[in-house]
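Sequence, please.
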């Protein structure tokens, strides 16, 4: 699938080529791992890691488009196709641009943001070094990290350290290794190992040298120095770097990872405090230190205070105004120290929270280690269930930690299509976050997760009420274009659509698209989600011609930074296929649905809700092609799966039962179809109400089969009720309204036409 253009570079892991990908057409960097590194264990781990790497979507990370293996006659070799970054290496860029210390620290903060994004997705780099960082766009410099997670996928940190051991044959990776990596204990490597590596990169970027003098050392000697010796101070070669920067880098480079910054974001936060002349966490916050930081932030005010003190020392009598002014300065200094102490306390709480979450999740992951669970494979679902079961006992007394873990579990359960478990976890997260009364960002975010879980569970009214209240609080607290406000707005629009409140939903979704484009940009994943939501609304409103280009936009944009079988791309393809069907492009729709379904079964499994929805869509297309037997088989399978996964009365299952009844009627199985329509109609009236679009549609469908059975009066009444409801909900010009009006007219005309006389 790739045409090699040229060799870009070669290293211990393999060769990197510039290549042209054939579909989609684009230039990529193709990294091919050496066969000597591709053991059976590495290949198994590679397949798992490749799934994680595709989730990384950040402007500071070179996007991985595809990962796989191929056999060129030497056994299976892993390869990565990734974004081709045209930039300059970090150190070279900083030297060429003659960047100031503050500008270099700005690049470090951007690097931290990218690494933190990966850590939140569960990916550790393990091989951060200047050679893996390129800077693009000299106007607004953006560092981009290459090879994210590939070290873990291939054990490259271990392999690189053992390739050459002669004096002077130094492998660059070792210089940036954390002490726990240097000891060879891979079980000790975690996100704090990347904190250490970023510390080394920052040290070299600021001072032009490394924290350890490893020149002329063998690999074993270098590893021993890293593991056993403290690094030199940053200011050892440049006294202008002493003070806060010394302290920040010393904390990032602590040999004991428990004394390091506990997350990359903590490291970045302290750098930003330094840049703002605020007290940093890496130093003990003494009163003198706090006062000095205060003075630097308020130089004019502090100079005036010193001037007043000088006058007093010289013997001038202080006036009342001078006394009040001195008192005011003292109070400000005290307040500055108090604020700093509060921030320190908050950061210590946050650090403890991060540490507890790391410990909890690490314990869960270790339970899937073949070394501790030999002879059996642990699925993601089993792992999440185990985490949920143990959270009560493990996280007792840590409400902030438990809230974060419960919310994450809820989101994972939703991704797995297990909505009952998702609701339970999300409800507990809301309770721990202060319940319905809390209005801080974390609590409001937890309410959003609960509302989405409720909607996916089929509890539309509860979801709408919760989201409406949360949106009002977000707008009051943060404004209309805050990320959390827009997240809530997006979710509420989808819930309103599920309740057939199409006008409100479309207005809200358009506001969300506009707000996210302004805040995040048109290519951001959240913006694309809202564009996809708007396209679905237009589709449901009978405007497939407007929806189709939006779905194409979502799919093509996502393909630029996600693998072809990304679940969100597959969902958008299912949606696009429905638009094609509505335009009677049945062959195109069938081809797209079959491709999507094969990928979803491979990626998500046969019983995931998204997979079943695609099955449902394929059956609709087959029904339109009068391939009734095939459609019926698919519908029956889908109904059974949805009953197991979502429950007997979930709206998605009821819609699929309606579709099955449509096929039964067209196959001539009128009695079974009428019975099924009756069951679905009763359930929909009870769950979503008599004026919902789904309820009205089933009314019309049941009317049609009643007419086939000769029960004309019942059919006419149902048609009339359905038509009145659609006129009120969608207007006279909607295709559904016009269709039912035509059927009712045809039924009435048939009643008025006298039957032919017998002869």
């Amino acid at each position: 699938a790739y045409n090699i253009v040229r060799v870009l570079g070669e290293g211990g892991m393999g060769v990197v080529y510039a290549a042209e990908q054939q579909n989609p057409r684009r230039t990529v960097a193709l990294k091919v791992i050496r066969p000597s590194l591709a053991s059976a264990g590495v290949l198994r781990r590679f397949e798992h890691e490749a799934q994680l790497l595709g989730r990384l979507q950040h402007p500071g990370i070179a996007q991985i488009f595809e990962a796989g293996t191929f056999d060129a006659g030497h056994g299976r070799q892993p390869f990565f196709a990734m974004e081709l970054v045209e930039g300059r290496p970090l150190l070279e860029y900083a030297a060429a641009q003659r960047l100031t210390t503050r500008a270099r620290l700005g690049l470090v903060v951007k690097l931290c943001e990218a690494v933190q994004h990966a850590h939140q997705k569960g990916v550790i780099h393990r091989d951060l070094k200047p050679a893996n960082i390129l800077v693009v766009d000299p106007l607004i410099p953006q560092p981009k990290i290459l090879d994210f997670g590939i070290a873990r996928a291939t054990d490259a940190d271990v392999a690189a350290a053992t390739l050459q051991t002669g004096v002077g044959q130094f492998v660059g990776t070792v210089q940036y290794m954390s002490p726990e990596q240097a000891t060879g204990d891979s079980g000790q490597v975690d996100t704090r190992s990347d904190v250490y590596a970023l510390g080394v990169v920052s040290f070299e970027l600021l001072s032009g040298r490394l924290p350890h003098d490893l020149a002329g050392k063998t690999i074993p000697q270098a590893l021993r120095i890293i593991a056993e010796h403290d690094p030199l101070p940053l200011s050892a070669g440049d006294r202008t770097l002493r003070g806060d920067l010394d302290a920040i880098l010393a904390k990032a480079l602590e040999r004991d990872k428990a004394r390091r910054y506990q997350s990359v974001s903590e490291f970045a936060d302290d750098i930003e405090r330094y840049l703002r002349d605020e007290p940093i966490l890496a130093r003990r916050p003494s009163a003198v230190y706090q006062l000095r930081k205060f003075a630097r932030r308020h130089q004019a005010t502090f100079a005036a205070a010193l001037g007043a003190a000088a006058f007093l020392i010289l013997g001038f009598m202080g006036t009342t105004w001078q006394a009040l002014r001195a008192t005011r300065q003292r109070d400000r200094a005290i307040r500055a120290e108090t604020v700093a102490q509060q921030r320190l306390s908050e950061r210590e709480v946050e650090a403890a929270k991060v540490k507890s979450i790391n410990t909890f999740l690490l314990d869960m992951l270790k339970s899937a280690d073949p070394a501790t669970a030999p002879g059996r494979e642990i699925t993601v679902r089993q792992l999440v269930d185990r985490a949920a079961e143990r959270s009560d006992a493990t996280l007792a007394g840590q409400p902030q930690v438990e809230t974060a873990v419960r919310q994450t579990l809820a989101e994972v359960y939703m991704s797995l299509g297990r909505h009952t478990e998702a609701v339970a976890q999300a409800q507990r997260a809301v309770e721990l976050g202060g319940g319905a009364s809390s209005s801080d960002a974390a609590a409001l975010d937890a309410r959003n997760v609960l509302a989405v879980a409720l909607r996916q569970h089929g509890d539309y009214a509860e979801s709408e009420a919760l989201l409406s209240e949360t949106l009002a609080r977000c707008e009051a607290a943060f404004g209309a274009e805050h990320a959390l406000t827009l997240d809530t707005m997006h979710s509420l629009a989808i819930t309103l659509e599920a309740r057939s409140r199409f006008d409100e939903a479309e207005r809200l979704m358009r506001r969300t698209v506009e707000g996210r484009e302004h805040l995040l940009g048109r290519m951001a994943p959240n913006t694309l989600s809202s564009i996809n939501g708007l396209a679905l609304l237009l589709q449901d409103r009978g405007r497939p011609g407007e929806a189709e280009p939006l779905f194409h936009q979502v799919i093509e944009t996502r393909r630029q930074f996600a693998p072809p079988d990304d679940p969100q791309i597959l969902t958008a393809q299912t949606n696009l296929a429905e638009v094609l069907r509505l335009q009677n492009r049945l062959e195109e729709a069938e081809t797209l649905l079959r491709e999507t379904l094969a990928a979803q079964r491979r990626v998500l499994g046969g019983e995931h809700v998204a997979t079943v929805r695609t099955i449902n869509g394929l059956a609709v297309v087959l029904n339109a092609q009068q391939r009734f037997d095939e459609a019926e088989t698919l519908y029956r399978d889908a109904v059974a799966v949805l009953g197991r996964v979502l429950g007997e009365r979930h709206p998605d299952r009821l819609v699929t039962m309606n579709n099955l009844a449509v096929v039964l009627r067209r196959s001539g199985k009128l009695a079974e179809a009428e019975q099924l329509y009756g069951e679905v109609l009763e359930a929909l009236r009870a769950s979503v109400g008599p004026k919902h679009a789904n309820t009205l549609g089933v009314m019309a469908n049941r009317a049609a089969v009643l007419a086939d059975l000769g029960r004309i009066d019942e059919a006419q009444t149902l048609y009339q009720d359905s038509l009145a409801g659609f006129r009120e909900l969608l207007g006279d010009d909607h295709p559904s309204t016009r269709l039912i009006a035509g059927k009712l007219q045809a039924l009435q005309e048939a009643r008025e036409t006298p039957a032919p006389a017998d002869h």
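Residues 528 and 554 are 6 Å apart (CA to CA).
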